[in-house]
Amino acid sequence: MYDDNQTTSYQDPLIEADKLKLQGKHQEAISICQKILLNDLECAEAYEELGDNYLSLREFDKALKSLTRALKLNPRSANAHYLIGFTYSSTGDFRRSISHLEEAYKIQPNHPEILRCLGWSIFHGENRTKGLVLMERALAISPDDVLIICDLSVCYLNEKKFERTIKLLNHAIQVEPENEKARDCLQTALFFQREFGKLGK
User: Fold this and answer.
1) What is the pLDDT along the chain (201 residues), one digit of tens a residue?
2) Cα(84)–Cα(149) distance, rounded to whole angstroms?
3) CA-CA distances (angstroms) from residue 84 to 69, 71, 127, 136, 195?
């Protein structure tokens, strides 16, 4: 899900697979990865790309199988650790998610996407304050990243920090005026701010 500048002899087809993935053409991307693996069963990057596509399709078991294979071939892959951590986060297994995301962070520190996902998992899994701190660090590194902004605002909304939530979401809409998730989250935040305001009167 992010570029950690890996190189491979299969760079061109992997670039094509990545383009197809970003276009939502996951089955075509999967087909390219499978063709690479028919020729080279030890191409870790192909397993990573394969796992990333399965993750996008929410086929979590297949994603974990591919990504675990990638990690066995390259234990120092920040991307493989990140994707496994993301997969576990998506299934609600925050303990395992945190373990892999912390490994990804050790290998590639201060990467905003790793920090975002790690902060999200820690917030929901063990320590809300620490999770918020990590996501704020991610935002400081990448202040216009709408995905970071939206996730951070959802966490602040859970903490009933309405002013911070609304400020973040207004910024997200300035960056991406057509972003439906940001607009929906903003309406939700404004609603709860009004309702809790009534309770406080």
Assistant:
1) 555 544 445 678 999 999 999 999 999 999 999 999 999 999 999 999 999 999 999 999 999 999 999 999 999 999 999 999 999 999 999 999 999 999 999 999 999 999 999 999 999 998 999 999 999 999 999 999 999 999 999 999 999 999 999 999 999 999 999 999 999 999 999 999 998 888 864
2) 22
3) 11, 9, 21, 23, 39
